[in-house]
Specification:
The chain is α/β, with parallel strands linked by helices. Helix content is 37%, strand content 24%. Bound molecules: fructose -6-phosphate.
Length: 612
């Protein structure tokens, strides 16, 4: 977790760092800080948001042209001014920002204390900067060499940037298991946890690899070395990310903007990957490894949170259309339980950020065990995308709101294309069904636009149930994972306790909770289990629960039964999640806004979970 940013160039560093930190705030927002080098180090740190940090900055212009910044999501030590980064060495010469966890910090700290070091914070990061300082002064080492030697003894995950008041033109960055990007412009260098703070300044970037140290010294070429000290060839990439894409575009919250973008993001995900008229689907990742994929015996989907929910829909889609057995695993469980995975397995890793530590670990484990790994990732150039053998990008554009919305529908879209493609190749899907489903998928963006037109009604319903303290979400078949996702959206941004269940499971426990105070969201669209879900609705009504139903357009039966309903256009049953989830996203959004919650940055959460 945490976001880091650094700048060295000819301009004033502070505004560049603050702007960068604001872009990275989705990674953590419990405290932030900057260190600026202007002869000596000036450090400002503050608990709270980046705007709280701005409030304590001196009014007079800060002229330093080199500095580092950090926005924190606490792992060691509570969020407060002292634990905020940057952390300084004991002699005040070095400042360091860190994203990750130094696992062996306690033993290093103990040894340093014995040698006379004192610490002001409870963080693992302060230990690291003291350690670098000690090596530097003992060996009279250049900053990068002291950093290298220290990191040889560090266990855990890190992306760091360090500056030294006695080497005033130099930024030294290093990474292992946490992301770090270097931006290269004509007369300046940038470091950041992702490219968003960099792209308004330069589109030339280098993604550091695990175990690499980068030395950016003004007037010289960027130098990258491995921890073993071997110099690496520079792999400079040109980014095509558009800064407009990551700004709010007139919306009050990123989450609403991202919900509204879904007709476009789904269409973007399909572009060049299917064609209804000509009747084909194509995913480059599948083509690249077609021989191997044609012989897989099993698919394992590994993911976390919302991405895990899309994985569950993927299981239903792939088993239905391609008849390959699928297991969906929480990445955090898979990696710790010595799973049976082998060369006949295809592991699909799903991740919006491409940085989730548990999903990345599952990818590495699957590779070690000989499986083929397919990444379904949104963030271009992210660690999981690079670690996978092959894969497909979602092309949903940057998702900034902490609650995942457009990434979910893009993941489901890609999984549907994958299931259809595999089904067609394996002959498990008739030509007619294949063509019918491709055409139905192509209709989804325009159908979704119709769902989004119902915001006023959805807002009204949100107002009616905003004071609930608990909520139940029910769905069957393809819509069971949508019930889980609806519940997750509500709890994470509005702090209302919510649970998702397969509708038939309600009788086995949750029905005991139902009374007049319990809103029950039921995804009750037309399909194979329609009659059964109507019965489930009756069961809830008999216990006086309040029904909010997501129904197929024109369904008069459920309109009569439900307290509130939202209609979605008719589509193929397997594709309904792409439409049915959106009213649930909007309901959560409006309820959270009405309850005064911070929708884009809910408490205790972060967008990119790079800790285990
Ligand atoms: C929920 C949410 C999280 C993420 C999860 C995985 O709205 O955003 O549950 O889905 O942390 O993140 P990624 O997809 O980046 O691996």
């Amino acid at each position: 977790m945490c976001g880091i940013v650094a700048y060295s160039g000819k301009k004033a560093a502070c505004p560049i760092l603050i702007e960068g930190l604001k872009r990275l705030e989705y990674r953590g927002y419990d405290s932030s800080g900057v260190s600026l080098l202007n002869g000596s180090l000036q450090t400002f740190k503050k608990k709270g948001k980046v705007k709280d940090l701005e409030n304590i900055l001196p009014k007079e212009e800060l002229t330093a042209t080199l500095g580092i910044g950090h926005t924190r999501w606490a792992t060691h030590g509570e969020p407060n001014d002292v634990n905020a980064h940057p952390h300084l060495s004991g002699n005040g010469r070095l400042a360091l920002v860190h994203n990750g966890i130094i696992e062996n910090y306690a033993s290093i700290k103990e040894a340093l204390i014995k040698r006379g070091h004192t610490f002001s914070s409870e963080t693992d990061t302060e230990v690291l900067v003291h350690y670098i300082e000690e090596l530097q002064s003992e060996g009279k080492l250049a900053l990068e060499e002291a950093v290298r030697q220290a990191l040889l003894h560090v266990e855990g995950a890190y992306a760091i940037v360090v500056i030294d008041s006695q080497e005033p033109n130099k930024l030294v960055g290093a990474k292992k298991q946490s992301p770090l990007v270097v931006g290269i412009a004509e007369d300046s260098f940038y470091f950041a946890s992702d490219a968003t703070p960099i792209i308004s300044h330069t589109n030339k970037v280098v993604y550091l690899k695990d175990g690499e140290i980068a030395v950016a010294e003004l007037g010289k070429e960027l130098v990258i070395r491995q921890l073993s000290n071997i110099e690496q060839k520079l792999d400079v990439q040109e980014l095509s990310l558009d800064i407009q894409q990551i700004e709010k575009g007139g919306y009050e919250h990123y989450m609403l903007k991202e919900i509204d973008e879904q007709p476009k993001t789904i269409a973007d995900g399909m572009r060049g990957r299917l064609n209804g008229k000509e009747g084909w689907t194509r995913l480059d990742g599948l083509e690249e490894y077609s021989n191997r994929i044609s012989s897989v015996k099993r698919i394992i989907i590994a993911a976390c949170g919302t991405s895990w929910h899309s994985g569950l829909i993927g299981e239903y889609l792939i088993e239905e259309f391609a008849r390959i057995p699928v297991e969906v695993e929480y990445a955090s469980e898979l990696r710790y339980r010595n799973p049976i995975i082998g060369k006949d397995d295809l592991v699909i890793a799903i991740s919006q950020s491409g940085e989730t530590a548990d999903t990345l670990a599952a990818v590495n484990l699957a590779k070690e065990k000989g499986a083929l790994v397919y990444g379904l990732v949104n963030a271009v150039g992210s660690t999981i995308a690079r670690a996978s053998h092959c894969g497909s990008y979602l092309h949903a554009g940057p998702e900034i709101g902490v609650a995942s919305t457009k990434a979910f529908t893009s993941q489901v879209t890609l999984l549907a294309i994958m299931a259809l493609n595999l089904g067609m190749k394996r002959g498990t899907l008739s030509n007619t069904t294949y063509h019918r489903l491709i055409s139905a998928l192509e209709q989804i963006p325009s159908q979704l636009s119709k769902v989004l037109e119902q915001k006023e009604q959805i807002k009204y319903i949100a107002g009616e149930i905003k004071s609930a303290t608990n909520a139940l979400y029910l769905g069957r078949g393809f819509n069971f994972p949508v019930a889980l996702e609806g519940a997750l959206k509500l709890k994470e941004i509005s702090y209302i306790h919510a649970e998702g269940y397969p509708a038939a499971e309600m009788k086995h426990g949750p029905i005991a909770l139902i009374d007049i105070y319990m809103p029950v969201f039921v995804i009750a669209t037309k399909g194979g289990s329609y009659d059964k879900i109507v019965s489930n609705i009756q069961e809830v009504k008999a216990r006086k629960g309040k029904i909010i139903a997501i129904i197929t357009e024109g369904d008069e039966t459920i309109k009569d039964l439900a307290d509130y309903y939202i209609e979605i256009p008719l589509t193929e049953e397997a594709l309904t999640p792409l439409l049915s989830v959106v009213p649930l996203q909007l309901l959560s959004y409006y309820i959270a806004v009405m309850r005064g919650c911070n929708v884009d940055q809910p408490r205790n959460l972060a967008k990119s979970v790079t800790v285990e």
